[in-house]
């Protein structure tokens, strides 16, 4: 089976795992509005990475990576709220926020690569670009 280019990116793999972790964490959550928002934001991160990498240009890729980065911030905000209202245990929530923050940093580095402004920082975030 041939992999899509995005499947080689560590940031995409981690975003998929984060989405699965969010689904697991919220499995018994009865606040369906918050649960829906959080799962959508989590799924959006990996989905936008994939969509961007399937685009025809680096500029289009960067645009969708910005969307993914925005979704990671959205998810972190929702996790903070979920902690405060008792939907997610504080310790678990902070682990999820840390992962969202790290994914956001990886996306920032990949955006710079796609825009051609930085090429070295990819190694710092274990990003293997397909340039």
From TrEMBL:
The protein's matches in InterPro entries, at most eight in alphabetical order, are given as:
23S_rRNA-intervening_sequence, 23S_rRNA_IVS_sf
Q: Which domain of life is it from?
A: Bacteria
Q: Which CDD domains match?
A: 23S_rRNA_IVP_like
**PANTHER family, from UniProt?**
FOUR HELIX BUNDLE PROTEIN (PTHR38471:SF2)
- Record protein name field: Four helix bundle protein
Instruction: Read off the lineage from the record.
Output: Bacteria, Pseudomonadati, Pseudomonadota, Gammaproteobacteria, Alteromonadales
